[in-house]
Structures are given as C-alpha cells and as structure tokens.
Specification:
Mean pLDDT: 91
Helix content: 40-55%
Structural class: alpha+beta
Number of helices: 29
Oligomer: single chain
CATH class of the largest domain: Mainly Beta
Length: about 950
C-alpha cells in the first residue's frame, strides 16, 4: 500500500471555518454586484465606425472621378506663330498659357485628376478659394497613356463638404498640323498679281471629341460643364476670335508689341465646344435682332462675294429654329469661319462655328447645285447643334446620337425652310435612311445608345461618329415624328430643350418629355430602336394575311430574339387609302387587312417613314413590279425607290431571289425621277463592285446602256445647250444620266465629254458647274498622261475649294496604274494633298477598279503613318478601311483582312477597329453571295440585254 499525509484535529477545524467564511464572502459579493447592476446598468460601448480611406490612386476606369466639379475657368493662351513670314523670320510653333479652374469638392480627396495631352506643365498651385491658403502639392504627372490623366497628389486633404478650390497651371504646347486641339493651317493668299502669291498661316482649333486637353489642362468630359473666360495674346495685325465677343488692346510684353484680346465669359458649356482662331481674315456681317452674324474667310473670298449665300441662309435658318424650338439663340454673336484645313466637314463650337471652305463658300457660276445643297445642309446641321449638343448636351458620348441624330434630322427642316423648291425632305431617304440601314444590317453594328461602360477610350468615342449616330439617329426621329404627329413631336422637343438648357441629358430624359405630349407610351415604343442593335424586316403574306418581324441581317447567323414596336403605314390597290397600325408582337399574327382579294396589291411602309424593310410573298412582289412597269405613278415616288432598295437588300440576305431584285430596275427605262434612279444605281453599284473584275461585267454594262438611253435622251437638250434643268432633283438626275452613260461606254457620251475637256485644254471651258465632276472624270478615264497632268496643274492653280474638290476626284478616274500610284504617294505630302483631303482621295482611288488593289496595298504599307498623322480629330480612318475594302469578295482578300487585323490589332482595339470588323463581316457575306449568285446574275443580264 502507499504512503499518506496526517494533520491534527485543531488544524482541521480551523481549515473548515476559513473555507466556510471565504465561500460566504464570495456569495455576498455576487449578491451586492447584482444589486448594483440592477440600479446602474452598464452602458454599451460605442461601435467603432471604420473611416473611409481617402483615395490616392488612379481611377478604376478611364472616366474622371466624381469628387470634383469644375465651375469656371480663366484661360490665357499666347501662340507665338507668325501669319506672314518676312525676311529671315523663322516660324514658331510654340504656344504658352496658364489656366485657373475653380472647382467644388464633394468628396474628401488628396488627389486631383483632370486631363492633359501633349502639354508640358511647368507650374501647379492649389488654393482654397475662401481662405486663400495654398494646399501643398506633393507631386504631379501627365500620364502618357490612353487615360490622358493629369494627376496631382496633395499633402493635405481637400474638404469634401462642398468647399471650393482653385487649380492654377502653367503649360506649353506645340501648334502641329494634325488638325486637332490647337493647330496651324497654311494657305496661299492671292493678290491681284498672281506671281506675288504669299504663304499665310493661321491658328485654328478642333476640340471634339477629346482634344480640349491638348490646349490646356481641363476636366474634358461633356457633362462637366463650366463657364470659360478666355484671353488670347497674339501678334499685331492679326485678329483673335473665340466663342464670345472680345476686345483687343495693344500691350508691350518683354519689349514686343502684342494684342491682348479678352473675351466675355461663355455660357455654361462643355470643353469640346470651345473654339479659338487667330488669323488675318475679313468678314461679312448681317444682324438678326440684336445678334451679330458674321462669315469670316480669306479676304479674296469675302471680296468676291463667296460668303453672301451662307450669310443670308444662316440668318433665315437661325430665325426659323428660334421659332421652332421656342428658345432664342442665347449668345450675342455667331461667327462662322471657313478654314483652309479642317478635318471635319464643320464643327458646331458655340458662337464660333468652323467649316471647310467647301461647306461655307459658294460662287455662282462655278459652284454646282450639289455644292450649294451641301453648304445649306451643313450650315443647317451646325445651327441645329446650337440647341442640340450645345445648349442641351449628352451626359456621355454613348448618347452622341442625341446631338448628331437631332442635328441631322433638324437640318432637313432648316434647308426646306430656306430652299422649299428643292423637296429636300424627300431626299432624307436617299441620304440618311438607306445608308444607315446598310451599315446597320451587319452583326458588327452598334445600338444608337450604348452603355457608358462600352464607350471609354478615345478610339471608342471616335468610332461613334458614324452613320449610326448621324443617319440612323435622324431616321428614328423621323419615324417617331410621323408616328405621334409633328405637333406633338415639336411640343415635346420644346419641353425637352426648355427644361434641360445648360444641362446634360440621356435618352430617357428625351422620352420623358415626349410622353408628356403624346398619348403613346413613347419610351416603350422607342426602346428597341435606340437600345437594340439593328432593325427589323417586316414580312407580309398577302395570301394568308399574316405578318411577322425578325432582325434584318445580311449575314443571318441565328435568331437573337429581338423585337421592336413597329409603326406600319400601308395601302392597297385600287383605293390607295393609307392605313396605320403598330406591330408589337414578333408574330406571325393574322391581320385581315393584309389578306388581299384577287387583283389587289399591297404596299407597306409608305414613303419609307419607318426604319425597317418590308418583304412580301412572291406573288405580291411581282404585282408591285408589274404595276411599276405598267404605270409607276400609282406607287408614290419615295416608295418606288424604297421598293428597289428593299428588294436588293433582301436578295443579299437571301429572303428573295436575286432576279426579283434585278427585275425592279426594268421599269426604269420609263422613269425620269431622281429618287428611284439613285436608289437603283446605289444598289447596282454593289453588283459593279462584285463583278467589274469578272465576265459578268460586259453583259451588265450592256443592260445599263439600254436602261439609261431614254434618260440620257431626256436630258439631251440641256446637255447640248449647257443649260440647267429647273427642278433641283432633275439637275441631279441629269448628272446620273451622263455618269451612267459615259462609264458604260455610250459612245455619244464619251465623245461629248472628251470634246468638252479638249476645248478646256485649248482655253475654252464650257463645262457647266453641275457636270464638271462627271465630265472631268470621264475625259481623264479615257485620256492620257497629258490629260492627267493638265488636270493636276489646274488643281494646283485653283483658288476655289469646290473646284479643287472636283478636280481631286477626277484625277482618281484614270485607268493608268502608274499615275494612280503616283497620286497615292501625293496623299502623304500635305504640300500636294491637304491632310484633310488625304483619306477621301485614297477612297476615290479605291473606287476605281484599276486603283482598288493599289489603294489597299498602300494603306497596309503606310497604316501606322496614316493613323498617326491622319487619324486625329474627326478625320475618319474608319471610312478608309470601309471604302478601300468595299470590293473584297474573295477568300484571298478575306485572309488579307484577317492578317491585317492580327498585325495591327493583336494587342487590342485601335483606330478604326469597328470598321475593320465590319469589313471582315461584309467580305465573308460577299464571298458567299458571289458564289451563290454569279451565274444567275450573268444569265439574267445576258437575257435582258440580248435584244439591245
């Protein structure tokens, strides 16, 4: 057994007593503690709120943070260039400046992010606007990447409770010739003695969409509007112009005389609408109430009266818009200026609209009808922007159509007001609806209103300046106006403009006000047309009365399940009464109204007011074709053109047989109206592009000679006597008649063109302005090197921009490849072909079958140079890809396109990425179409031309 421990009896008793006492004490303490808790319950300690970290890194995407809101800028700019170089003067390309932007801080931050590009920033100061305390700058950096961010890190936190601060920056930049930001333009001024031609220079600006950041550090997003006070310091004998009126004073700076022109503060506006120019131009002025309207141009153009037409229609259109919109033009002055080098056609800068010379200057007897129409249309477009875009601006570029779609649609109303005999409202179908539908029938198209997240980079923004934003936008607005009625439509616009002036909007804001004036649920109806890509084809079976819709795609790869609410206007023979309905279902659904009796035909989408195509059962198609051949006047004029356009595109998408589409052109032998002829020629151009390198082209030319003969004869008297048809549309159709006849070897036509050109070479130019492009082209196409050189010399000597444009186009018509190669090289020499004309010149050459392959090889060899030098501003290198590859229809050409994509877009999207994808998709569709239809097309043309 183990060992134990023993204690005495006394010790044991003592231990027990002590233990009982201890336990009793503990019990008493617990009782007392509970009583105290009951009387004074403890307080719950406060929950610690985690502090929000103050961001210091770059924003998570390419958009500026929302913590700072600019309210006003004060900007000083001093360009050092000379307008005239005298003696040993060396031209300076430098401009210097400083800017102070006052902004409100709405979230605590130690970072300031705004935009700057190609600027050298030398000084940065941040000041509290109230206390005037300087906020110490830790560092600043202009990011040389796609963000274009100008980052400023501070040592203190800016108070985000609405405190105001000022950011001062000093900077320096360079006046390049890239037609973006601030740039320099070079031109020749023509004195009385032509031997004394002087080289002149001017400064101009182009800020849209993202180039204000090239001029001064700024919050360069459209919704970040502010008031701008501009001061330009420029050399004596020059004039400075900006958005608002300004006053100049001579000042001595560092021992030199300068003029300091201070301009009145602008309205609240977006950075992309700022404009600056310094030049030695003169002006012509007219007044509208208390507003001064001026046209500025080279002195010889003003003195010769080339601004007179523009000045008068500007006044009339501006007054018309003020009444139409129920809001006055808000500035005291409106300057419009013709810039010798300008990348876009024009730019709507508030109060200082800039144009190419061809879009503003008109010379009677030299400029053509199409020149005059172009001038009127562009002016009406830019003036519409003074409300749509300038007064009310889209919040972000994803809704660019709210600016460009409206300006495009409204421009037709403006032109119709000043030139009512032109019937310009009919031509919107040819110029906007049909071209938009062609692009929008590709899988690679895009919605009118994309999401903001989809549009981030400068390249993505620039890609939106396309026929979807402009032409589809206009077509959809035209459809809405026809559906809810003009009265409701324009009442809605008035509300939209009045309630959003000086603010920024998105698409839902527009529908909100349209809904107020209409019984229709406008937002529901319009959702599909703006938020979805593409458009529907409406199919009608007149033997069953069924109607249904599906997305129209040239290359149908599947049903994407898209639906639209489709306003339909239709009529039936023999009553021709127009009826209306809205197709809301995908279908098919039965409608008794579409079930025809024997002998009747049905025509839907009267005058193409809807943005969709219509397909019929074959029996109804041939009834309509028979009606056009029997008496085409029973079908409305616009609808005749629409039937042709629908049939050809439906054939390309395999809805109908290609011979049905071709049959819609047979009646043209009896047609003299412009719209059907233009629709047919636009669609037959696709056949020319697909087959002018194959054996199909001979029979096709024979057919075209047969069809155009009566039209050529119709205009023969005008052509022989060098007189002009009275109707606006007939003047265009005379050009069509001569162009088709000459390009398809009608001997009488080519002899006429050659003789007129020869007479010109001998010193007598009797070619009417309307026919110059066509006659020049035909003569150069059939002429020799001496003819080309003569035209080139005339181009170099021409002082009128519209005449230069006609010659520049005609030079691309030669069939001599070595001349075309030389001409392509000229496009990289700004002294020969201005930068703004380089892209369109290459496109002209590519349209010539002899030049297409040359142009493709050329842009592949020079793509990096082209995109760097010619891709700035709104000069669309996307159109270059589009037009140079338009003829592609072979597997070899498709592989070349894909190789081009691998070489230049392997690291992600770049300039013209969307256009390249569209070109690849179109080429794939072309290959399939040619394979399936070549023999059928060949047989049809052989059959139809055999009796000729």
């Amino acid at each position: 057994m183990g060992k134990g421990v023993y204690i005495s009896k006394g010790l044991a008793i003592a231990t027990v007593v002590l233990t009982v006492s201890a336990v009793s004490g503990i019990v008493l303490m617990v009782v007392m503690y509970q009583l105290q808790i009951k009387e004074n319950p403890p307080k719950v300690p406060p929950t610690l709120i985690p502090t929000t970290p103050i961001p210091t890194g770059p924003p998570p995407n390419l958009r500026l943070p929302d913590n700072l809101i600019p309210e006003r800028y004060e900007v000083f700019l001093q360009p050092y260039f000379y307008t005239v170089l005298e003696n040993n003067t060396v031209q300076s390309h430098v401009f210097k400046g400083n800017s102070t932007v006052t902004f409100k801080c709405v979230k605590d931050t130690r970072s300031i992010f705004l935009h700057a590009l190609q600027l050298s920033v030398s000084n940065v100061k941040v000041t509290d606007s109230v206390t005037r305390k300087n906020i110490e700058v830790e560092r600043y950096e202009v990011h040389i990447n796609k963000t274009n961010f100008f980052e400023i890190q501070l040592k203190e936190v800016l108070n985000g409770n609405g405190s105001y601060y000022e950011l001062f920056t000093e900077f320096e930049g360079e006046l390049l010739d890239d037609l973006a930001g601030l740039y320099m333009s070079r031109y020749t001024e023509n004195p009385v003695n032509e031997d004394d031609d002087q080289k002149r220079f001017l400064m101009a600006s182009q800020m849209q969409p993202t180039d204000a950041r090239k001029v001064f550090p700024c919050f360069d997003e459209p919704a970040l509007k502010a008031v701008f006070s501009i001061t330009i310091i420029h050399r004596p004998e020059t004039k400075a112009r900006s958005n608002t009126p300004g006053e100049g004073k001579y000042t001595d700076i560092d021992g030199e005389q300068w003029i300091v022109t201070k301009f009145e503060p602008t309205p609240i506006m977006s950075t992309y609408l700022l404009a600056f120019t310094v030049n030695q131009f003169t002006d012509k002025e007219v007044k509208l109430e208390n507003k001064e309207i001026r046209i500025w141009a080279k002195p010889e153009a003003i003195n010769a009266g080339h601004a007179s037409y523009s000045l008068q229609i500007t006044k009339d259109i501006l007054a018309f818009y003020e009444e139409l919109f129920g809001l006055k033009y808000p500035l005291r002055k409106l300057d419009q200026i013709a810039i010798p080098d300008f990348g876009a056609g024009a730019m709507e800068n508030w109060g200082l609209i800039m144009y190419r010379e061809t879009a503003l200057l008109y010379e009677e007897g030299v400029s053509s009808t199409s020149n005059k129409e172009w001038i009127a249309t562009v002016i009406a477009h830019e003036l519409a922007h003074q409300w749509f875009g300038n007064l009310v601006t889209m919040k972000w570029w994803n809704n660019l159509w709210l600016s460009e779609g409206f300006a495009t649609y409204i421009s037709y109303l403006g032109v119709n007001k000043v030139e009512p005999t032109w019937d310009i409202l009919d031509l919107i179908v040819l110029k906007e609806v049909q071209p938009a539908m062609e692009v929008d029938s590709l899988n690679s198209s895009h919605p009118l209103s994309s999401t903001e997240a989809e549009i981030q980079t400068t390249a993505e923004i620039s890609d939106l300046f396309d026929s979807i934003s402009y032409s589809k936008g206009a077509a959809v607005l035209r459809m809405l106006c026809a559906h809810i009625g003009e009265t409701a439509f324009f009442e809605g616009l008035k509300l939209y403009l009045k309630n959003n002036q000086y603010q920024s909007t998105d698409t839902t804001d527009l529908w909100k006000y349209m809904k107020e004036v209409s019984t229709e649920d406008v937002e529901s109806i319009m959702y599909g047309w703006t938020e979805q890509v593409g458009y529907p084809v409406i199919s009608i079976n007149t033997s069953t009365g069924e109607i249904w819709q599906e997305q129209f795609l040239l290359n149908q790869t599947g049903d994407y399940g898209l639906e639209w609410q489709v306003p339909i206007r239709f009529m039936k023979s023999p009553l021709f009464k127009v009826e209306k309905e809205v197709l809301r279902e995908k279908g098919p659904v039965a409608r008794p109204a579409y079930d025809l009796k024997p002998g009747e035909w049905l025509l839907a989408n009267i005058n193409c007011t809807g943005y969709y195509r219509v397909n019929y059962d074959e029996e109804n198609w041939y009834k309509l074709i028979d009606q056009m051949e029997t008496d085409h006047h029973d079908i409305p004029l616009i609808s005749r053109g629409q039937l042709i356009d629908d049939a050809f595109n439906l054939a390309r998408a395999k809805y109908v047989n290609v011979t049905l589409a071709l049959s819609t052109t047979k009646y043209l032998i009896n047609e003299t109206e412009y719209i059907p002829w233009e629709s047919a020629l636009n669609n037959l151009q696709y056949f020319i592009l697909m087959f002018d390198r194959s054996e199909v082209y001979g029979p096709m030319q024979k057919y075209l000679r047969k069809q155009v003969g009566p039209l050529y004869d119709y205009f023969q008297e005008y052509t022989d006597n060098a007189t002009v048809p009275e109707k606006h549309s007939e003047q265009f159709n005379q050009i069509n008649a001569i162009s088709v006849a000459c390009s398809n070897d009608v001997q009488e036509c080519t002899e006429m063109a050659t003789k007129l050109f020869k007479d010109w070479r001998n010193g007598t130019n009797r070619i009417p302005p309307n026919l110059k492009s066509t006659i020049y082209c035909s003569a150069i196409a059939s002429g020799d090197e001496d003819d080309w050189d003569f035209a080139w010399n005339q181009y170099e000597k021409a002082s009128i921009a519209t005449e230069k444009d006609k010659l520049r186009y005609a030079l691309s018509c030669t069939k001599k490849m070595w001349l075309l190669n030389r001409y392509l090289e000229y496009t990289l020499e700004p002294s020969k072909i201005r930068k703004m004309d380089a892209v369109s010149t290459i496109n002209h050459i590519a349209r010539n079958v002899a030049g297409q392959a040359l142009a493709w090889d050329f842009i592949r060899a020079h793509w990096t140079e082209i995109t760097e030098e010619y891709g700035s501003g709104l000069m669309s290198v996307g159109s270059l890809i589009d037009e140079v590859t338009e003829r592609f229809s072979t597997e070899f050409e498709l592989q070349q396109l894909k190789q081009f994509r691998r070489e230049h877009y392997g690291d992600g999207p770049g300039p013209a990425a969307r256009a390249l994808e569209q070109a690849i998709e179109r080429t794939q569709a072309n290959i399939e179409w040619v394979k399936e239809n070549k023999q059928t097309v060949m047989n049809w043309f052989l059959q139809e031309s055999k009796d000729h």
